[in-house]
Write a structure and sequence with these properties.
The complex is a heterodimer. By secondary structure, chain A is α+β, with helices and mostly antiparallel strands. Chain A is built from 22 helices and eleven strands. Among the domains of chain A are: 215 residues, no CATH class; 112 residues, no CATH class. Chain A is globular and about 85 Å long. Chain B has a four-stranded antiparallel beta sheet. The chains are: A alpha+beta, B alpha+beta. Strand 8 of chain A pairs parallel with strand 9 of chain B, so a sheet runs across the interface.
């Protein structure tokens, strides 16, 4: 058993100035606190049956399917509208208007009237409307290459090659999973008190888990249509090795900037988990064996982390090298004599590994101590309303002090430089989606969204310093309403030290994929594959237990693939 | 008439209010106030449509109350309820005692003050009656709050507002209305204002704004 030494004051939380940097955030990996992991732990612990309850598909794979997940208190249903898409129309971009399949998660069990209503709306996605009976709206396209290969193999009566599956990792790729209040769906506030949704994004991820089931069911269905006499079902080990893909663009990036209190809870929980493990006083040989085995599985998972993006290729290469060094380092550790062994290893990593390697180690360390860290998952939601109200009684001097304490990174930036001001965030008229523009090359900067946090803090700071420091913020804001959004943030940062990204989000060298990577790591995504500096592909639920396995033989370390026996 | 989720209404009003020329921080307040009103079963879309029709194009300073050293000076101009509401919320009511009152002055769409005053009352632990042209807004004779009573003045376009701190605790109503109702003309006006916050596509933005990069159909 691990012993935590609570007096170990020399081991402290990593400071925000270390953690809240885009380069590090863009190197984060999933952990046991990631929302997919939390979801499956619950489904397993509470023994949720998840079943296909309706399947009306024609030979071309066009029709309706329903999957139902039943918890102790409530039932949720994924309604699927499957399409025979003209290949010319297949695009993952948000500009697409038709998809291979579209989905909605219904709160309860849909009746025929619901299905009829949804059929008129869900396939249209953003152009349709859903109701307060629905909790999410999403769509997916086939990974054409893999889908067709698997379909052909199964039709022949053969199983596809595992290595071929691993190269892609999924049969279908979602291109948007909308939740709370979007396109008419029920607002999160009305389900936030449900036990099963106490962690963030649980209903969206429940939908994704069932979309993964559909992706295999539809390929089997089509293989049987092609060759009813010879077709076979996909082997269950291969089935488990397939996740569901996702393409994510800039639309997701502003979320962690626009939800500073919530984001603080995510970052702080992860940091607290790391701290608890670094403070473990001693680890026995069994713990070291466990670490070695996890590391081997993590290394094996790297084999099929493929990307053509030059930056990510470099990062994967560095990580591969890092994990080799880590394996050697651990081999030479004399476990029994070490005090705070994991802290020693972590500090070594800070000096010897890339950011990818350091953050991967954080993931592995957290993985080993469920009894210390799992309880932190409940802290990852936030009552953001509580922090919305500005404290107008605060004096200007106090606010200046908060800026000095939490926003030094903003005050240190010279915004007279074009490079520091190069971009602006906006919403596009075409798709109403967040975009990033070039301030000095494109029109529209006057319609900039308030995501230039550093610049706006610096500007508020300058105006605040012009005023009498004993004046109230209430009086200041009457004269300077343009600083209201920033005053709110600064006050929120006082109690939420991990709420702000300590980089300039409009700098010419800012990489939006770092924002995406960070957020997606909290979801539990793996295999980050940036397709440009602004959109990324990922895999979700790869290697996750199948529905019957959730109930019968749940393995909570599913995300680390087994090491192949012939290696 | 159609229905919006509260999140959609919040976002639409936020953009419309920003589109009418106010700061982002004030627009956040407007969106949140709209969602509060709708959650309480009040006609949020109508109230904000009325308000924005009246104030669109007006300089924000001329819609701001005249406040010196925390004292309200009702001026001759009519103020925006979001600006007044945030000022009330910022200044707080904790320094007032039962029986005290604040003459806020002339305010457009005064029912929009409700969420701000309610927030203030909770934060400062006081009970407040809002009077519009001397009539209590949404409060019964006993000072209790009742959203179901459709007072004639609820959607009035402007009125003289006075706040009175009362001794009795108002009955609070659960936030349980899930949908905001909006008429087609209201939606059209709010969307027209919201549209001013969008940037039209250009060749450059199409090719790089979202980051086209590699082929995505494989």
């Amino acid at each position: 058993m691990a012993i935590v030494n609570p007096d170990n004051a020399s081991i402290t939380l990593r400071p925000p100035s270390t953690v809240m940097k885009l380069a590090r955030m863009g190197s984060m990996h999933q952990t046991r606190l990631s929302f997919m992991r939390v979801l499956l732990r619950r489904l397993a612990a509470e023994q949720w049956p998840i079943e296909r309850t309706r399947w009306q598909m024609d030979k071309t794979g066009v029709g309706v399917g329903v999957y139902t997940a039943t918890g102790p208190d409530r039932t949720y249903s994924l309604v699927v509208f499957s399409n025979d898409l003209d290949p010319a129309k297949r695009s993952d971009r948000v500009i697409a208007e038709e998809w291979d399949a579209t989905f909605t998660l219904v709160d309860g069990v849909p009746d025929q009237a619901d299905i009829d209503r949804l059929q008129q709306n869900v396939p249209k996605q953003e152009a349709g409307r859903i109701s307060d009976r629905e909790l999410s709206l999403s769509r997916a396209n086939r990974s054409v290459r893999l889908f067709n290969y698997v379909r052909a193999e199964l039709a022949k009566g053969a199983q596809p090659q595992a290595a071929e599956l691993d190269k892609v990792g999924y049969l279908m790729r979602t291109t948007a999973v909308y939740g709370s209040g979007k396109f008419g769906a029920l607002d999160r506030r009305f389900i936030a008190d449900r036990e099963e949704f106490s962690s963030p994004f649980q209903c969206e991820l429940l939908a994704v888990y069932m979309i993964r089931m559909f992706s295999v069911d539809i390929v089997e269905h089509l293989a049987r249509s092609d060759a009813p006499d010879t077709a076979v079902a996909l082997d269950k080990n291969l089935r488990r090795s397939l996740g569901i893909g996702n393409s994510t663009g800039l639309g997701m990036a502003p979320f962690i900037v626009n939800h500073p209190v919530l984001f603080n809870q995510w970052m702080l929980s992860r940091e607290e988990a790391l701290l608890r493990v670094r403070r473990v006083a001693a680890a026995d040989a069994g713990k070291f064996d466990q670490f070695t085995s996890l590391l081997a599985r993590q290394r094996s998972g790297l084999t099929y982390w493929l990307s053509e993006h030059p930056l990510q290729k470099e990062k994967i290469a560095a990580l591969t090298k890092d994990l080799t060094s880590l394996a050697e380092k651990v081999q030479h550790l004399d476990s029994l004599d070490q005090v705070n062994p994991w802290n020693g290893l972590y500090l070594w990593a800070e000096d010897h590994l890339s950011l990818e390697g350091q953050e991967c180690l954080v993931t592995l360390l957290i993985e080993m101590y469920p009894e210390l860290v799992d309880e932190l998952a409940v802290n990852m939601s936030a009552d953001e309303d509580r922090y919305f109200k500005i404290n107008g009684q605060m004096k200007i001097d106090e606010l200046l002090e908060l800026i000095n304490t939490h926003y030094q990174f903003a005050l240190d930036t010279d915004f007279t430089q074009r490079s520091a001001n190069a971009r602006y965030w906006y919403a596009s008229e075409e798709k109403l989606e967040p975009r990033l523009g070039e301030r000095f090359e494109e029109p529209g900067a006057e319609r900039e969204h308030p995501l230039a946090i550093s610049r706006d803090v610096a500007s508020a700071y300058s105006d605040l310093r012009e005023r009498d420091g004993t004046d109230s913020i209430a009086m200041f804001l009457l004269k300077y309403p343009q600083h209201r959004h920033i005053v709110r943030r600064v006050q929120q940062a006082a109690d939420h030290p991990y709420s702000e990204i300590e980089n300039n989000l409009i700098a010419d060298d800012m990489l939006p994929i770092d924002l995406l990577r960070c957020k997606l790591s909290y979801f539990g995504a793996i295999k980050f594959d940036p397709r440009s500096d602004r959109w990324v592909r990922i895999n979700m639920f790869q290697h996750a237990p199948l529905p019957n396995e959730l109930i019968e033989q749940y393995d909570d370390t599913w995300v680390y693939p087994p090491v192949p026996v012939n290696v | 008439m159609s229905e919006l989720s509260l999140g959609e209404l919040d976002s639409l009003v936020l953009k419309a209010y920003r589109g009418a020329g106010f700061s982002w921080g004030m627009a956040q307040e407007a969106g949140r106030a709209a969602a509060w009103l709708a959650a309480h079963g009040l006609p949020a879309a109508t109230l904000f449509t009325n308000l924005l029709k009246q104030i669109d194009g007006t300089d924000a300073t001329s819609l701001t109350p005249d406040i010196q050293n925390q004292g309200w000076q009702p001026g001759t101009h009519t103020c925006c309820p979001v600006v007044c509401g945030t000022a009330l919320s910022d200044l707080g009511l904790s320094h007032l005692e039962a029986g005290n009152s604040i003459a806020v002055g002339s305010v457009y769409s005064p029912a929009i003050l409700l969420p701000f005053v309610a927030g203030c009352a909770t934060a400062d632990g006081v009970n407040v009656t809002i009077r519009v042209d001397k009539q209590p807004l949404l409060t019964g004779a006993d000072g209790s709050y009742d959203a179901k009573k459709r007072h004639a003045g609820l959607v009035s376009e402007k009125g003289q507002v006075e706040l009175e701190i009362s001794a009795e605790k108002a009955a609070s109503e659960a936030l349980n209305v899930r949908r905001a109702v909006i008429s087609a003309p209201e939606a059209a006006l709010l969307e027209q204002l919201a549209h001013r916050t969008y940037v039209p596509a250009s060749e450059l933005s199409r090719s790089s704004g979202a980051g086209a990069g590699l082929n995505d159909n494989d």
